Amino acid sequence: MDPFMILALLGMGCFGGFAAGLLGIGGGMILVPFITMVLTARDVPEALVVHMAIATSLATIMFTSLSSVRAHHKHGAVVWRIVALLAPGILVGSTIGPWIGKQMDASTLAWFFGAFVAFSATQMLINKKPAAARELPGTAGMFTAGGVIGVLAGLVGAGGGFVSVPFMTWCNVRIHNAVATSAALGFPIAFAGTIANVFYGWGEPGLPDYSLGFIYLPALAIIVAASVMTAPLGARTAHRMPVRQLQKVFAVLLYALATYMFWKAAT
Known about the structure:
Its main location: membrane. Belongs to the 4-toluene sulfonate uptake permease (TSUP) (TC 2.A.102) family. This is Probable membrane transporter protein. By secondary structure, the protein is mainly alpha-helical. It has one domain (3-266). The chain has ten helices and two strands, in the order H-H-H-H-H-H-H-H-E-E-H-H.
């Protein structure tokens, strides 16, 4: 891997880690398009590029989540009872999401990812939070909610924050607690999704060297090295300053990345 590619991956890791800690989004929606660019530049077969980018992004969240959640936990912001209730459904859903993704061709998966990112950017830009209309559901309801979060997160290679945070705020969880708890949920999402992507991608024809299933290990290692350093910084920033202006910047970036994924799907 040439030095420019290494620097690009380090930059992605720094930015993705900061976003994960700041917004509880796992960084995946930022990382997937950039990893797609890197894999395309390395002449990975087009049929595998998006699948591998999503799988590699999801694997990074295992490390980013642990790094950012420690900073959130120091502020007492993580609601561990919610983590325990959502985690079983998340573990199930996060194994199903990659399976669904494998059934899609690369173009369809890129279209779906781009649409999800554009929706998430709009949600971030308008900052419309659901009214706190109810309390958290019972065990069965939380399992179902966790399953939905896991399926979507496993399918797009993200930490699930754009689903879990609105769900929790709708259920009367304070926004800072929802962001922190979403960061903690990133680990079970990424763990189950990573195992699934290794299994579903094992022996796939055309995988580049140093791949583990659909996961491209060189990109994983470089991104993680950077992201674990910046995720705590993002988490501390979330507790020390209003993040509204930063949200707008991230939303514009997400629109640009969604546009790239639409272009990738169309070509």
